[in-house]
Amino acid sequence: PWQTFGQPFFFFTCLFLFVLCSVGLSYVLDGVRSKLNEVAFLKRMREWHFLAVGYRRVLQSHVERLVRDSEPVKRCSDGYSL
Fold first, then answer.
1. Which residues cross the membrane (predicted)?
2. Whole-number Å distance between alpha carbons of 11 and 81
């Protein structure tokens, strides 16, 4: 087959394989980079989640304290006991 096609066939085959490998490698590296970005994004979201949970706990304890402090007043106004 080399006698009929000659060197250009071999050259274009190597060029095609090189282009194919470089495109595949760029896809792989792009996938790895996006995966790393995704991991960093998930870590950041987890930190925000912990912050939100902590803020909610503080807010909840504050609301519970307000409710607990206002309960005797409510009882007095309802006429239960002083």
1. 6-29
2. 99
